[in-house]
Design goal:
Mean pLDDT: 78
Number of strands: 21
Strand content: 15-25%
Number of domains: 3
Oligomer: single chain
Strand order of the largest sheet: 1-3-2-11-6-7
CATH topology of the largest domain: Sulfite Oxidase, Chain A, domain 2
CATH superfamily of the largest domain: Oxidoreductase, molybdopterin-binding domain
CATH class of the largest domain: Alpha Beta
Number of helices: 11
Bound molecules: S-adenosylmethionine
CATH architecture of the largest domain: Alpha-Beta Complex
Largest sheet: 6 strands, mixed
Shape: globular
Helix content: 10-25%
Structural class: alpha/beta
Length: 469
């Protein structure tokens, strides 16, 4: 896929058809489409061009005939080809012969189209080139001689010849050329586009949505393999002015963040167990800890508020999914005032499933637990579904007896260490044999434990649930 990008693109000398300026904030999701008239197009330099309807109308016009969504009739859409819109914003499409000369940042850039309601679609730049198959992606503002309906206005992307209209994005308000990375490990060359303040004249300069100034994000960065970070998480890390993380995450995210952006959070905040607790409810050292935790929390809250007020993008980074046994799980509650956006991540659980290479939902149920607290065991009512344990810092020696109280000794168990890292390993046995399998080997800090009959499903049935007879 990345090869497609290599064919094209260089940044041109700036040729503008309208005023360059600070990028206006997108309208709020609640905004009514008919009121949204301006189109923001941002190029790879981070420079935003705001087109009024009149300026849009002066760009080279084109028409495309295609099926109207949700009916069998054809419609004639009229507007401006998307590559012409990009050209107006200063993106120059070069000939393939010169592609090798183009900066890596342009070869890997992609185009993010955003709607007023938050819907987003990504295109590769190469998709807009006639020589790449001639797909004429159109930014339409009229259909069958009429302005677009309120549901689709002010602009709708028309992708002719597609099955399904998922990428026929309506109510388009922003088109952003985004830097990609040539390697998931490496940050893109050049400075990350700086968030810019909304001008006072912007219509509906409303509370920001994604990636606009002054936002707080809780971001999952995936289970370890840097290629398993989402496109969105990588972009937010790259654009963030400040990235808060705990010390062990520093190296994991180093390849994604701007220099100097990382700030290590106080370990007192980890897990948020005592965040907001009342010191009077505790005694001795614990009371002291609660007091200090609340001081750290207040400091952090104040700092984040200041950053947001100054228009900065703040990211709290966590590995895996940020709400699954996460040390930052309390952020949505305690930073509620800043309306943090949660960006999910691939959990170590997903990575461990992949390492096991089988469907793990045994007898129709899956329980996910943490540490050695498996709930209040009733020795007579054993578990039958698959149990997955995020071990945290629990020792296997403490965990095994609790598992043995819940499952028969011949129940399969799998231990997945360092899922998605180069050192990934899977050890299998039964609850009765696993100690022998390990042979006294010390497990690494990161591992998940799976227990249940589902792990023993025969190969032909491994991706299917098995139900008790
Ligand atoms: C604080 S929890 C964080 C979980 C994270 N939010 C997630 O979704 O994967 C840490 C525990 O997750 C598990 N874990 C995290 N990364 C792992 C990996 N790459 N391989 C195996 N287990 C992992 C371990 O049990 C570890 O003790």
């Amino acid at each position: 896929m990345l090869r497609l990008f290599r064919l094209l693109l260089i940044l041109p000398p700036l040729c503008l058809v309208s005023a360059w300026g600070a990028e206006p904030a997108p309208p709020s999701a609640a905004a009514q489409a008919p009121c949204v008239r301006h189109l923001v197009v941002r190029n790879l330099d981070g420079k935003a061009l705001t087109l009024t309807p009149g300026e849009f109308a002066k760009l080279p016009r084109a028409t495309v005939r295609d099926k109207l969504p949700h009916c069998d009739q054809d419609g004639v859409y009229e507007g401006v080809l998307l590559h012409e819109v990009l050209r107006a914003a200063g993106v120059q499409f070069e000939s393939p012969a010169d592609a090798a000369k183009s900066p890596a940042a342009m070869r890997t850039a992609y185009v993010l189209v955003e709607a007023a309601d938050g819907y987003q679609v990504v295109f590769s730049i190469a998709e807009f080139l006639p020589r790449q198959g001639g797909r004429q992606v159109l930014l339409a503002n009229r259909v069958n001689g009429e302005p677009l309906s309120a549901k689709a206005a002010p602009y709708q992307v028309i992708v002719p010849g597609t099955v399904g209209c998922e990428r026929w994005i309506r109510q388009v308000t922003r088109i952003l050329v985004q830097p990609g990375t040539s390697s998931a490990f490496a940050p893109p060359p050049g400075p990350a586009p700086a968030p810019q303040a909304a001008p006072a004249s912007t219509p509906q300069a409303a509370p920001a949505t994604k990636e606009t100034p002054g936002r707080v994000y809780l971001v999952g960065t995936g289970p370890g393999d840097p290629e398993l970070i989402s496109v969105k998480a990588a972009r937010l890390l790259r654009q963030a002015d400040v990235v808060f993380c705990y010390s062990w995450m520093k190296d994991e995210i180093a390849g994604f963040v701007q220099p100097g952006a990382v700030q290590i959070a106080s370990p007192l905040l980890m897990g948020g167990q005592y965040c907001g607790a009342k010191p009077a409810d505790f005694e001795g050292e614990l009371r002291d800890r609660v007091v200090r935790t609340n001081e750290e929390l207040a400091k952090l809250q104040q700092r984040v508020k200041e950053l947001v007020a100054a228009g900065k993008t703040v990211v709290f980074a966590d590995n895996g999914d940020p709400l699954l046994f996460s040390p930052w799980g309390w952020i949505p509650q305690h930073l509620d005032e800043c309306r943090p956006t949660v960006v999910p991540g691939i959990s170590s659980f997903n990575a461990a499933n992949a390492a096991l290479r089988q469907g793990v939902v045994g007898l129709g149920s899956l329980l996910i637990s943490s540490g050695t607290e498996l709930g209040n065991a009733d020795a007579e009512r054993r578990l039958r579904g698959t149990l997955v344990v995020f071990t945290q810092r629990a020792k296997l020696d403490e965990l095994l007896p609790k598992l043995q109280a819940r499952y028969a000794a011949d129940t399969p168990i799998a231990i997945v260490c360092d899922a998605s890292y180069p050192a990934e390993r899977v050890m299998r046995g039964t609850l009765g044999t696993i100690r022998d399998v390990l042979g006294g080997e010390k497990l690494p800090p990161l591992y998940l434990v799976y227990v249940g009959d589902g792990l023993a499903a025969p190969p032909c049935c491994r991706s299917w649930q098995r139900w008790p007879k």
